[in-house]
Every structure is written in structure tokens, then in C-alpha cells.
Design brief:
- 20% of the residues lie in helices and 37% in strands.
- The chain has one helix spanning 35-50, and strands at 2-11, 17-19, 29-31, 59-66, 75-80.
- Strands 1, 2, 3, 4 and 5 form a five-stranded antiparallel sheet that branches.
- The longest helix has 16 residues, at 35-50.
Length: 82
């Protein structure tokens, strides 16, 4: 298993971005797969959990690093309801 550190930001309906806490996923995340696959997995989990109660965020961004969150992320994944 690999250990990935991640960062999540969500955009509200006013267009403001804010950093979100790690619920419901541990940080670092243990995931058996490459960085982009792990980032996409986190994105899918956050889209499902943050969409309740509706309408949820307008967009989310997930950045992911293997090991320590230093330097440029190794993978990124985004979602938008637009």
C-alpha cells in the first residue's frame, strides 16, 4: 500500500474557494494504486459525500502527493456540476 497526502478545495455558489477538512477520508490515505487513480478515487468519494445536503459545492479540486505534501502535486483531479 502507498501512503498519499491530499488536499481538498471546494468552490461555493458565490465562486469562493475554501480548503476543506479530511472528513470522511484519512490523511494520509493508504491506497493500492498509482497517484492519478488515487486522486480520482478521492474526487469520487468527495463528490458523493459533499453533495449532501443539496446543492453542495459548485466544484472541487483534489491534489495528491505520495509521502509528504511538498512541491508540486503528483496528481490532481477536479469535478464541477456545471
Amino acid at each position: 500500500m502507498r501512503n498519499y497526502r491530499w488536499d481538498l478545495e471546494a468552490q461555493d455558489d458565490a465562486g469562493q474557494w475554501s480548503r476543506q477538512d479530511g472528513a470522511p477520508m484519512p490523511n494520509p490515505l493508504e491506497y493500492d494504486g498509482p497517484p492519478q487513480q488515487a486522486a480520482s478515487h478521492l474526487r469520487d468519494v468527495f463528490v458523493r459525500t459533499l453533495a449532501r445536503p443539496a446543492p453542495g459545492p459548485r466544484a472541487i479540486k483534489v491534489r495528491l502527493w505520495e509521502g509528504h505534501s511538498v512541491g508540486e502535486p503528483q496528481a490532481e483531479s477536479e469535478w464541477s456540476r456545471e
